[in-house]
Amino acid sequence: xxxxxxxxxxxxxxxxxxxxxxxxxxxxxxxxxxxxxxxxxxxxxxxxxxxxxxxxxxxxxxxxxxxxxxxxxxxxxxxxxxxxxxxxxxxxxxxxxxxxxxxxxxxxxxxxxxxxxxxxxxxxxxxxxxxxxxxxxxxxxxxxxxxxxxxxxxxxxxxxxxxxxxxxxxxxxxxxxxxxxxxxxxxxxxxxxxxxxxxxxxxxxxxxxxxxxxxxxxxxxxxxxxxxxxxxxxxxxxxxxxxxxxxxxxxxxxxxxxxxxxxxxxxxxxxxxxxxxxxxxxxxxxxxxxxxxxxxxxxxxxxxxxxxxxxxxxxxxxxxxxxxxxxxxxxxxxxxxxxxxxxxxxxxxxxxxxxxxxxxxxxxxxxxxxxxxxxxxxxxxxxxxxxxxxxxxxxxxxxxxxxxxxxxxxxxxxxxxxxxxxxxxxxxxxxxxxxxxxxxxxxxxxxxxxxxxxxxxxxxxxxxxxxxxxxxxxxxxxxxxxxxxxxxxxxxxxxxxxxxxxxxxxxxxxxxxxxxxxxxxxxxxxxxxxxxxxxxxxxxxxxxxxxxxxxxxxxxxxxxxxxxxxxxxxxxxxxxxxxxxxxxxxxxxxxxxxxxxxxxxxxxxxxxxxxxxxxxxxxxxxxxxxxxxxxxxxxxxxxxxxxxxxxxxxxxxxxxxxxxxxxxxxxxxxxxxxxxxxxxxxxxxxxxxxxxxxxxxxxxxxxxxxxxxxxxxxxxxxxxxxx
Length: 723
Known about the structure:
This protein has 723 residues and is of the alpha+beta class. The chain folds into four domains: 3-75, no CATH class; 135-340, no CATH class; 349-531, no CATH class; 542-718, no CATH class. Strands 1, 2, 3, 4, 5, 6, 7, 8, 9 and 10 form a ten-stranded mixed beta sheet that branches. A six-stranded mixed beta sheet has the order 15-18-14-13-16-17. Strands 11-19-12 form a three-stranded antiparallel beta sheet. The chain is elongated. The protein starts with a helix and ends in a 5-residue tail after the last strand. Residues 665-711 have low confidence and may be disordered.
């Protein structure tokens, strides 16, 4: 069709659509004029007036039929029919409010669960960074490991030719002093070009451009929560950990860092952050030291794909490996470059993938149950309306027209269900945030799960609306229009195949519900068994308090003295039987990793270790298989340690330990004579051990830590009575 024709017909069609009353009046006038002209022609031939008018109408073929042909020629009648179907559907819903509410509630549950699941999936897997051109923001990784040494980052930044910029980030726990209080937060120590790589503008102030400058940038939420949105914050000094920084900027509200779901509160220069503690700056520049590795983020050059950037980086990496041979097979693995979506870390995404799949399966089953339930309701309603549909068919409505009408009614029900599902999604978002606020401080400090609505969630909900219409509306609508009209008008009953269909759908609904209830029951049973299981340590009447002290005046000796005094004062309180200090609580899936070599083994293995006070085992009532507990005489000079039962079995095969065995933890050799202690429980070890962590060893306090051991410790308090 020529463009000139479109330019001529399009305004006419739009006029017929939006001014249909005027167009119909003009059509009536034109047909009346045509009849008058045809009648006059027959009268001129000697025919009577009545006969002439009858012949003119016969020639025209019927006025109403001609009007329908003219409306079909406009090609907008389907829109008018749809509007009429919507009006009729709304009238039917108002006529049956009980049916409408029941069907809408069923679909609200199904679509609400799936919308919330998709919002979680979008948050963890799909959501791009809130930066300009997010499709150019990438993350470097190697065999699901997204951490690199700082010298490697510098080499990639200087030698790569496919990135407009490469930045480094080290997400870490930190502290922020505000209003004479110290707050536990999440921070990022970043390279000087971090914000330039992101391409974002600050809310107020500026970004830093020098890693040796003692300045900091606050997040918008930290600025509002800790400093009450004070516009004069620029130029003021704040303390984070042991360092004072001058605030020079506040980030935009949308940008909360690159380590989702962790929300960053402060950004500081990487080198300035590393200078706070002894040897940290040396660890930063050591290519072989695994204790301080950074995430590498890059903004691709225009028209460069991630595969091209990965090929260029692997060439650079091969050149580096020739200059400095890799110390492990993992360090020689190829680099990958991927666009950042959701959680940037490959380990975070791989950890969230099984949970996302489980939620998708459960959400799909819930939606299917809701659709089958609504389908049964529609089948029953179709039986009640079969006489109405038969009368409409006799009056000239075709099966396709009736099918569209019934589908539009189902679409309105689905639309109500999706609207309720979006409201349910917002409620679930608030419930999730409230649940996060109820978690212990170390678990909730940096978590920010934003499941609010966005364009992707809204489009997914709209797709659910159409899917629900098809799942629960097509079969009942087809059954409703495929009937013997005359037998129904004569008072015939419901056909047997329709009854069988309702029975099959009811059986399917019951079966799916039983499957869902069975899964929920198994889940609750697993939770009950976990709570009832014996963990290997005492949990009743045990309280713990998280201490987070980063005073610059604290040294190793003064920090040790501080905790000794704190423990003694706590023991003197009424109702407190004992007190102890530990770096990690039992069953926490965290801990410091290091290489371990024992006299019972010839090859090193990876293990986790923690720091405890001498009374920790007694306080937690952890039994010993062999040896004794730590005493106040055990310290840096004695180099005592004890290991888990799993480490004992893997090293000595469960045999009694030699009287003078040694165990090399990292760079310090510790003796394990008969004074070593061993856990008698397996559940703790199995729960804590994950990934490459094969065993656990505990050291006396003050032995070794990448930051001062008093940085973040927990006080364990067993009470003499229930709180």
